[in-house]
Amino acid sequence: MMIGVSAPWQLRTGSADDLDIVGPLWVAVHHQHAQTMPELSPYVSDDHTWQVRRTLYEDLLTKPGTLLLLASIDDRVIGYGLAHIMAVEETWVADTWVTGKRVGEIESLSVLPEFRGSGLGSHLLTRLEDHLRAAGVDDLVLGVLPGNRDALRLYERLGYRPTWLYLSKFTGRD
Ligand SMILES: CC(C)(COP(=O)(O)OP(=O)(O)OC[C@H]1O[C@@H](n2cnc3c(N)ncnc32)[C@H](O)[C@@H]1OP(=O)(O)O)[C@@H](O)C(=O)NCCC(=O)NCCS
């Protein structure tokens, strides 16, 4: 007989009060970006990336429907995910694809390096999707750097498909 093993982490809903804890987890995403696409260097500093991201999260957390999920082991936060809801007209989707009136965005997903590969990222993503679906939002988007192959594979396994590809030509750098 199979005996179920309970997850080694606990999940809870976060708020703007948790953003200091989230900072290092976002910086881990930034490091992943820089490591997987070094050809796009230079990247902004850790302080700068978090300053910009924090402002975005503060704004998103004032909107109805936004969910910040924190995963922890023994009171140490080791992963998080954040999802929010947009009117389709606010997105790049509206002029091209038929969808519902609202689109959910998986804004962020991060698991600290030493805890990756044990299912937490998939679990956080599924919980964010459950939240959006419960809010009546079934059309979802998320952004990923094309060089972040591990994350891309995870997203594709869960049903996401490449949809809109931005190209860049950063010639304004000193
Ligand atoms: C993407 C991420 C959230 C997945 O979390 P996770 O807990 O490792 O994910 P799961 O264990 O549920 O899923 C395993 C998948 O994650 C990726 N993965 C597994 N171990 C990994 C590791 N040590 N490092 C990076 N990715 C790993 C792989 O795609 C793996 O799929 P595979 O079995 O086909 O190799 C996590 O790797 C992470 O935080 N990466 C850095 C930040 C990032 O890229 N976030 C997404 C930005 S769009």
TrEMBL record:
Cited InterPro entries: Acyl_CoA_acyltransferase, Bact_Acetyltransf, GNAT_dom
Domain of life: Bacteria
Keyword annotations: Acyltransferase, Transferase
Pfam families given in the database record: Acetyltransf_1 (PF00583)
Coiled coil: none
Alphabetical list of Gene3D superfamilies matching this protein: 3.40.630.30
PROSITE patterns listed in its UniProt record: GNAT
Domain N-acetyltransferase: 27-174
Protein name: GNAT family N-acetyltransferase
Species assigned in the record: Mycolicibacterium sphagni
